[in-house]
Amino acid sequence: MEEAKNMPQESYGEYLHRYGLKNTRHRKLVLQLLAASHGVLTAEEIFQQLCLQGETINFSTIYRILEMFTKKGLTERNYLSNSRKYGFTLHSLGHRHHLICLRCHRVIEVEHCPMADFEEKLAEQTDFSIVGHNLEWYGYCPECRKH
User: Fold this and answer.
1) Which residues are 96's β-sheet partners?
2) Residue 115, number of CB atoms within 10 A of its CB
3) How far apart are CA 13 and CA 19, in angstroms?
């Protein structure tokens, strides 16, 4: 979904249509925030940011949008154990590996795949055609550990 992060604002509507979603103002606003984020955003954080921008939107509307985005494969839901909430990021295809800070929710992409050999053996053992996987580690980034 790097494509969405680098997209001009007027293209967000087309992006939504590609996922079978109507192009509404609120959906575009939520998509913009997710695309601009370098971390996981909770529904509450999205709500707060939109309110700070002067938008009038109900929290329940944001939550419904996020659930719809997740159902359509546009976003992924990540459980943030320290706050017992779910956060959302734009979905990326293939396999990916993330470090997620439990305090600031920053997401760091891990380049090397430590699961490649295991995935190959698992596919052989199960005769399963594996097309991707997700691997997430949770902890505290260097900045948050200073505080």
Assistant:
1) 134
2) 14
3) 10
